[in-house]
């Protein structure tokens, strides 16, 4: 099932994508695609609804981030060996964790503002894992039982902010608009093997990233289990699981994003995003 949110920024309402591709409103059925509405029982109730009985969303409506009220947005760094190599960094012995501010979350087609002072704006297509039920000290074998589903994430990064100053990566990962989510939250029953998905990203029509989640160092089940040792994962938390090679940082002559650039990216079975870079206001 493909679930999503649509409407103006801050006023999104929940919906689903019917078999004919139309967006159907879940307003009045659930208050938002968030929290306890992401658990297995809640999703089973949504699955039982005939989409034809639901109102159709207006044509051309804005798509918002596919999950609401995200409590934690957790990033995993250098989780593809070849990406670590192109970045000139060692492959981590265990997952490298960083946080992105939830204020970075945006819709999948929203413009991306180049922050003031930015000089090294970069892209990263990633598989997002959305938690459906609380996970604390869960085994790797049980980890995916706590997942509601998966989505596309663009882990946009400003590399000078991230790597050239003091402090943690969070500064280069958290500007407004640096975490487009969606277009859909695809429930986990639709993605039986999240470690066998192609993912890609283009800038200006040129494909820079073309990889597979099969080459992850740490897969989604291992990541959920590992993170649950250090923090309780709550419904609606999002884990963005790392990117394959092909980012600007890894180029001999980096091709940093500039205003006017158009990014297009996708993950197999999870849909496609597109963002245009705009100058800072």
Describe what this molecule looks like in 3D.
Helix content is 12%, strand content 29%. The chain has a 9-stranded mixed β-sheet. A 5-stranded mixed β-sheet has the order 7-18-17-14-15, with no helix packed on it. The chain has a two-stranded parallel ribbon with strand order 6-12. The longest helix is centred in the first third of the chain and has 8 residues, at 40-47. It is of the alpha+beta class and 281 residues long. The chain has helices spanning 40-47, 81-86, 140-143, 159-163, 170-173, 220-227, and strands spanning 2-6, 13-17, 23-25, 73-77, 96-100, 105-106, 112-113, 121-122, 125-131, 147-154, 157-158, 179-180, 185-187, 198-203, 206-212, 238-240, 262-267, 271-278.
What would you say about this model in short?
The protein is an alpha+beta fold and 281 residues long. Helix content is 12%, strand content 29%.
Order of the strands making up the biggest sheet: 3-2-1-13-10-9-16-4-5
The CATH H-level superfamily of the largest domain is Fumarylacetoacetase-like, C-terminal domain
Average the pLDDT over all residues and give the rounded result.
96
The number of distinct β-strands equals: 18
Oligomer: single chain
Which topology of the largest domain does CATH recognise? Fumarylacetoacetate hydrolase, domain 2
Helix content: 10-25%
Give the C-alpha Rg: 18 Å
Which secondary-structure class do the elements indicate?
Answer: alpha+beta
CATH architecture title of the largest domain? Alpha-Beta Complex
Q: How many domains, as an integer?
A: 2
Strand content: 25-35%
Major sheet characteristics: 9 strands, mixed
Shape descriptor reads globular
The DSSP helix count reads 6
String of helices and strands: EEEHEHEEEEEHEEHHEEEEHEEE
The CATH class assignment of the largest domain is: Alpha Beta
- CA distance, first residue to last residue: 38 Å
**Weakly predicted, low-confidence segments:** none
């Amino acid at each position: 099932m493909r679930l999503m949110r649509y409407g103006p920024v801050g006023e999104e309402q929940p919906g689903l994508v019917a078999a004919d591709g139309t967006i159907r409103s879940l307003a009045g059925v659930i208050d938002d695609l968030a929290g306890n509405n992401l658990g297995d029982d809640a999703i089973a109730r949504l699955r039982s609804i005939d989409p034809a009985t639901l109102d159709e969303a207006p044509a051309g409506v804005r798509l918002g981030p596919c999950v609401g009220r995200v409590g934690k947005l957790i990033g995993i760094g250098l989780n593809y060996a070849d990406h670590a190599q192109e970045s000139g960094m060692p492959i981590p012995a265990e997952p490298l964790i960083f946080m992105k501010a939830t204020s970075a979350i945006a819709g999948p087609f929203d413009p991306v503002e180049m922050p003031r002072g930015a000089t090294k704006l970069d892209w990263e297509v990633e598989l997002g894992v959305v938690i459906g039920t609380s996970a604390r000290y869960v085994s790797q074998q049980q980890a995916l039982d706590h997942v509601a589903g998966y989505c596309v994430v663009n882990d946009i990064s400003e590399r000078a902010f991230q790597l050239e100053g003091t402090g943690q990566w969070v500064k280069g990962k958290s500007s407004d608009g640096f975490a487009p989510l969606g277009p859909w939250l695809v429930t986990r029953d639709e993605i039986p093997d999240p470690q066998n998905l192609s993912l890609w990203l283009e800038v200006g029509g040129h494909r820079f990233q073309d990889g597979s989640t099969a080459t992850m160092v740490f897969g989604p089940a291992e990541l959920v289990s590992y993170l649950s040792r250090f923090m309780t994962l709550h419904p609606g938390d999002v884990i963005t699981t790392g990117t394959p090679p092909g980012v600007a940082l890894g180029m001999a002559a980096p091709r940093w994003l500039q205003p006017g650039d158009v990014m297009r990216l996708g993950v197999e079975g999870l849909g496609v995003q597109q963002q245009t870079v705009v100058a800072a206001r």
